[in-house]
Amino acid sequence: MLLDIDGLTVQLPGAARPLLADVSLRVAAGEVVGLVGESGSGKSTTAKAVLRVLPDDAAAHGRVTVAGADVLTMTGSALREHRARRVAMIHQNPRSALNPVHRVGDFLVERLLRTGDHDRRTARDRAVELLDRVGLNDPARRLRQYPHEMSGGMLQRVVIAGALAADPDLILADESTSALDVTTQAEILALLRDLGRRRETGMLFITHDLHLAAAYCDRVYVMYAGRIVEHRTGHSLFDHARHPYTRGLLDCSPELGISRPLRPIPGRPPSLADRADGCPFAARCPEAEPACETWTPRATELPDGGEAACRRLPEAAAATAGATARNNP
Amino acid sequence: MTTPQTPAAAQPLLVADGLRKTYHLPGKDTLVAANDVSFTLPTGGSIGIVGESGSGKTTVARMLVGLVRPDAGTVRVDGRDRTAGRRRGRGERLARAREIQMVFQDPYLSLDPRLTARQCLATSLSLHDAAGAQGRIEELLDRVGLGSREAAARPHEMSGGQQQRLAIARALAVNPRVLVLDEAVAALDVSIQSQILRLLVDIRQDTGLALVFISHDLAVVQHVTDETVVMRRGTVVEQGPTERLLTAPENAYTRALLAAVPRRGWDPAAAVRDRGAAPAGGRRSGKAQED
């Protein structure tokens, strides 16, 4: 497994609930895996844990491995190597990823020199090659341009070229197309798919847009309040979602060409100051029972291959009953 | 077809006619942000303006409310020309503000950080000589679903959804005929976005408020509008009933825009191929680069 996160819990001092609670997630080589959730659900924190750029005072438990290497215990040169070559991150705003007073070429050449595989001249040639690969025309001229001379879509291509510079195994795309127009978004998504397919790169695709994740990703994890609440294939999300939160998200997201009244989820997501001893969604859940408020969520495997962490699923009840029966024969 | 023609239907509430705005960029470049944009809106109607960044939709919104003066064209409400006359007195300006109100994308930037929700509404009411209407403040807070805790809170103590509710309450305070919403739900999480959309639909039904809904999100526009205008680089490429426009678009750009929206069975590569097949429309201007 390329990326394997197992039981990751991240706690900040003073927060009533953990940033991440018992998160398990896998990405295989060549796979596009979605991570969906609303603001504050822990999607970006998960990506940061993979790069190990968590806040200094955060306490992390569990395991994060990339190509078998344990990220949470890495130090010194191994960690530098991990961040510079193994994993690349693409952020939402390309303008804040590039220095506005440096040329686009400087950004790419600096990246390439840091890999240690190039001198200045070969780095420049490679930069032209990279810009060509991400679909920018006249790449040699682009190298001499400044960020303000390019549109957002073109700049995001430059940032992707930068991410590809070190030929990473894993790409973390954090809302990397959210600020783009839909037509540009489609172009960038097609590009990322194509690049991943050719190089067997794995991608963790983070977005707030459930429809986008379902339509684009091979598999999707849905997060709520720092927990994975559901996991299934992208195409099965539209019709076969099982967790009440996932279904609530689908019911409240307008879908093009399908006219049905929107059913908002009442209330709002819990903040870090809200304690959640049981299921964090219980307060907003139409199916919650009093026992949900003290039930610690855990994933239940479903017959269709998906997983959901809900006490009210018949499968969860069966699993609990089975465990009880085994414990008290 | 069998509906009797009411006088209100005979004369549209809002008429935008031939709106045009050109910006002068550094150097000799000019940017035609809006060119000959026309549409009408009946009382209680809802029209969407969609387009990608740089299409001119925000410029049109700002011309409607009077934040930008059009180079040509008029905006009429109930037959009165809002764009006529250069000098206006305070009374005149306030009267125009009561016709059309606007809600912006970022509620935090559009609210005074020093004022509590209740003070914010009181300020707006007192501007329009309706101060002391304590009952009216409670009514507005109740209308947008803000409780007594939020009523005493300042913007930084509220969530984004609560801030946007307050911005809507403030816009409603003067009983406007038209509400212009410029990407008003774009920055909100979907579960909160749907609450706000539901609120707007309810208010429209209850009060006959007309909406101009500006958004890049076609699925959202589908849910709140009857008519839609599609803009590209300052020009209207297609307009018509939202339902027809989304199911049987006539313009190649509208089709490309629809093809790019993620949904069941969607393939971004196919959407890109479709776009490649679409002929270029609209106008390129200045040095703005497109990829």
- Note the total helix count of chain A: 12
Tell me the CATH topology of the largest domain in chain B.
Answer: Rossmann fold
Give me the secondary-structure category of chain B: alpha/beta
Low-confidence stretches of chain A: none
Topology of chain B as a string of helices (H) and strands (E): HEEEHEEHEHHHHHEHEHEEHHH
Low-confidence segments of chain B, given as residue ranges, are: 1-8, 278-291
What would you give as the CATH superfamily of chain A?
Answer: P-loop containing nucleotide triphosphate hydrolases
CATH class annotation of the largest domain in chain B: Alpha Beta
Question: What is CATH's topology name of chain A?
Answer: Rossmann fold
Q: Architecture of chain A in CATH?
A: 3-Layer(aba) Sandwich
* Helix-residue proportion of chain A: 25-40%
**So how many helices of chain B?**
13
Portion in strands of chain A: 15-25%
Overall tally of structural domains of chain B: 2
- For the largest sheet of chain B, list the strands in their spatial order: 6-7-8-3-9-10
Number of strands of chain A: 12
Taking the sheet with the most strands of chain B, its summary is: 6 strands, mixed
H/E series of chain A: EEEHEEHEHHHHHEHEHEEHHEEH
- Cα Rg of chain A: 21 Å
What is the CATH C-level name of chain A? Alpha Beta
Mass-distribution shape of chain A: globular
